[in-house]
Amino acid sequence: MDTPLLEMKNIVKEFPGVKALNNVSFRVATGEIHCLVGENGAGKSTLMKVLSGVYPYGEYTGEILINGQEQQFRGIRDSEKAGIAIIYQELALFPELTVYENIFVGNENRKGAVVDWNETIKKANEVLQKVRLNVNPGEKVKNLGVGKQQLIEIAKALSKEVKLLILDEPTAALNEDDSANLLDLLRGLKDQGVTCIMISHKLKEVISIADTVTVLRDGQTICTLDAHQGEVSEFVLIKNMVGREINNIYPERQRHPFKAAAAAVEAAKTTGVKVISYDRLITNTKAIDYFVTFDSVAVGALQAQYLVDHATGKGNPLYLYAGAAVDPNAYLFFKGTWDILQPKIADGTFVIKNSSEAVALQNKPSLTREETSKIFAQITTNWDFHIARNLAEFNLTIATVADKGDVFILAPNDGTARAIADVFAADQDVKSFIITGQDAEKESVQYILDGKQSMTVFKDVRTLVQTAIDATLALLKGETPAAQITYNNGAVDVPGLQSPVSSVDMSNAKAVLIDSGYYKASEFTGAAKPPAPSANPSVGIVLPTTEEPRWVQDMTHFQQAFKAAGYNAEILFSQGDPAKEKANVEALVKKGIKVLIICPQGGGEVVLEVKNWSAYNPALGREILKQVNFNVKKGEIVGFAGLMGSGRTELALSLFGNPDGYRIDGELVVKGQKRSFKQPKDAMDAGLAYVTEDRKGDGLILIQDIKQNITLANLRAITRRGVVDNNAEIQVATEYKDSINIKAPSVEQIVGNLSGGNQQKVSLAKWLFVKPEILILDEPTRGIDVGAKYEIYTIMNRLIEQGMSIIMISSELPEVLGMSDRVYIVSGGRISGELTIEEATQEKIMELATN
Asked: What is the pLDDT of residues 786-797, one digit of tens each?
């Protein structure tokens, strides 16, 4: 075995009462990118501080070897002499100094005792070229964005002839473009012989760039994984990081509009009315009698059959991709594909190229859920465009030329199909490819017409309507609808009524999806107001308030179908409020309805509305917000997405008392009242709270303890005659420590000593103590690990269940999609778009963000 560049053996580092590192061993090969992952507090940064000499020899036990030679670093200077450089998450630059001064600070080029500035500037230009940064070396660092400052830190390291570059959360504060540029630079440095250790909580980035990944947990080495052997996946990393399976990073909750629908179901069911649902988000109740859905097995079978029909000869490269491992529909979809593909895999028509688990099971005609989950661990995209793209890029990076050629690809949906298709199209060794998807998304229809995607499975929502109508008519006639499947909703088994699906490719896409008017939304704008209620309705229908054309078409379809059959239908538009929904359905029950059809969407009470909101920043001499309009409803999470500098944080601050002194124009309505806040206290008194994106700089006092930080924003609640009641403060802080699981020995623990995730919980608790009704969260999970993120998300869901409304600003698009009910996109200080969570995708958000 080759001697590694770095080997750390049995490292033990203790602090008073805590063993931060417990016999950690760690090897890094020359010329690799080695990622170090783990939860906050796992020991990653401590290990790197041992390596870099911050914790010098004698303050730890164990061995450090560089190229096989033991090292005893007495400080950072010693590690730098050995070719080691570390760049921390908090950049160590001097804002008032120039770029070249920062690069060579403490390492100046001298002629005798005098600094040779000409030589310094010359060498600064050389290292700036190495990091691909085109800036004037005489520019002051304070005038540059954080992405460029990060590159200056790397240039500073390269100026010292670094052999081993350590980066601690290098992309935590970067936007997607800057992050992509940085990762691409690291690949380039690798080609130049620089070895890199990268600490990151962004697992997608880890998967995309790592050669090797080491996982730490509770100060111990858990495992080291070889990315080139297919050992690295998000599922595997999370399981090893947290010591348990987190199958869904975003905990499930009943989204806001569906609470009202559940109340309607309850009102109908208690009186013996039959209930039909064709939205699986509200089937998690025993009150649903029938669930109308699409045949997921048939969807998979259609895709697989398309691949089979277009394959000739033997040895065709086959790449399999799947959706979310925890989604039962993903399993059914994959079952449908496997049933068709497996015989052709077994006879050699197809050869699986991207899943060793699938290859090991290729002779099994059917798979158990456990066997499928093993395959999913290697091929899961979580329905995410960027994960799919990164996974496809990784697959092709390790593939041989023989693994390419004329390729066959199974994608779980249209969004991932487009991402994967783009990657395969860009590979010069791929001669041709056939790729299948599902959902008939408009973008994929265009891809099919352009020859970029081969086929899609069309799941026409109108067939769901017809299936619901047929089932209703059967019930009204005293018959029992024939269920094709049993759908387990997490509580009980519900009889499932399946609608058909159809295959669409270039030969019929225009006729089926365009000429039919399926996407001609303009034809339906403002059409069909709800009819006057019938005197004695037989059928009650709850439809959404949205004017999306297909729902309007559904309403008309429902009415015409039941009228033709001799029955009256009364339509209610979803109120979004459980009490109102329940009362409306109870009124229908009294009128005599026999069947209720639920199709929930829509919103509830508007608790915050912003109209024509503009802001002028005198310090910058320009307008930073321009005619912004949006609203927030009770009990929902509204996501705000956009690029860095788009104006999202400025918008939040302008609403929360305008502490930066912008000149504001526009109207703010809170709970039905026009408001004008002169300071944050005014906003707090009106029920608003703001959790800053910079918890260390603006959110917390790091030298104070947990209890002092939690009570800081609401001292009057624990003050008696002008004096803080220490017992009351401890009681309040302890309640929040327990309720949101702040991990610390006591509430008297200094906040600066907590992990990032626990600091974020303290920052959140501080504002929860003011008892807000509208909570603004600015980058709520920035720089914290996946386990802590899950806990923050769980807290957010709990707050929503309690009736709070949340505005969530986030630069992580999967987070926006995973947690939001609606999404506003901000670009250049304007709202460039609003998307329901059903229609939102990363591609659509990015298109609007860059508009």
From this structure: 778 888 899 998
| Bridge partners (DSSP) listed for residue 668 | 610, 675
Give the three-class secondary structure for 19: strand
Decide: 754 and 747 in contact? Cβ < 8 Å: no
Give me 798's structure tokens: 């709990």
* Length of the chain measured in residues: 851
Q: For CA atoms 710, 713, 717, 718, give the dihedral sign.
A: positive
- CB of 541 within 8 A of CB of 599? yes
Q: Where would I find the H helices in 594-740?
A: 648-655, 680-685, 706-710, 726-739
* Residue 158: closest CA among 182, 189, 134: 189
Separation between Cα atoms, residue 14 and residue 335, nearest integer Å: 51
Q: Of 681, 694, 693, give the one whose Cα is nearest residue 772.
A: 681
* Average pLDDT of every residue of the chain: 85
Measured distance CA(639)–CA(831) in Å, rounded? 12
User: pLDDT over 70 for what percent of the chain?
Assistant: 90
Strands 274-277 and 595-598: parallel
Q: How far, in Å, CA of 445 to CA of 56, rounded?
A: 61
Query: How many CA atoms does the CB half-sphere of 422 hold within 13 Å?
Result: 13
pLDDT of amino acid 526: 29
pLDDT at 276: 84
The pLDDT of residue 611: 93
Token couple for 262 = 């559940």
Rounded to 5°, the CA angle 776-719-690 comes to 5
Instruction: Give φ, ψ of 181 to 5 degrees.
Output: -65, -40
The predicted pLDDT at position 35 comes to 96
Token match 């991207």: residue? Answer: 354
Q: Which residues contact 592 (CB under 8 A, 6 or more apart)?
A: 536, 537, 538
Which is it for strands 195-199 and 502-505: parallel, antiparallel or unpaired? Answer: unpaired
Mean predicted confidence (pLDDT) in 208-222: 92
Fill in the amino acid letter for 367. Answer: L
Please check whether residue 207 is in contact with residue 234, taking contact to mean a CB–CB distance below 8 angstroms.
yes
User: Can you give the pTM of this predicted structure?
Assistant: 0.57
pLDDT band at 69 (very low <50, low <70, confident <90, very high): very high
Identify the residue with better confidence: 557 or 294. Answer: 294
HSE value, Cβ hemisphere, 13 Å, CA-based, for 9: 11
What are the beta bridge partners of residue 630? 610
What six digits make up the tokens of 377?
């661990």
What amino acid is encoded at 642 in this protein? G
Higher pLDDT, 283 or 825: 825
Please compute the mean of the pLDDT values over residues 778-802 and round it to a whole number. Answer: 86
E strand residue ranges, 468-519: 485-488, 493-499, 502-505
Phi, psi (rounded to 5 degrees) for 394:
-65, -45
Contacts of 343 (CB under 8 A, 6+ apart): 365
CB-side neighbour CA atoms (13 Å) of 520:
10
Is residue 226 a contact partner of residue 565, using CB atoms and an 8 Å limit?
no
**Locus of tokens 């906003």:** 683
The distance from CA 284 to its chain's CA centroid, rounded to whole angstroms, is 24
How far is the CA of 735 from the CAs of 706, 725, 728, 729, 732, in angstroms? 12, 16, 11, 10, 5
Q: Which of 377, 317, 323 is nearest to 350 (CA)?
A: 317
Compute and round to an integer the Cα radius of gyration of the chain.
29
Single-letter code of the amino acid located at 342: Q
Which residue segments constitute the domains of the chain, with CATH numbers given?
6-240 (3.40.50.300), 261-290+466-482+496-598 (no CATH), 311-453 (3.40.50.2300)
Closest by Cα among 97, 246, 287, 81 to 164:
81
Tokens of 605: 């009470």
Question: pLDDT tens digits, residue range 595-618?
Answer: 887 775 545 678 999 999 999 998
Question: Treating both helix axes as pointing N-terminal to C-terminal, what angle do 549-564 and 461-476 enclose, rounded to 10 degrees?
Answer: 30
Residue 831, token pair as written in the block: 């709202």
Residue 418 near residue 443, CB atoms below 8 Å = yes
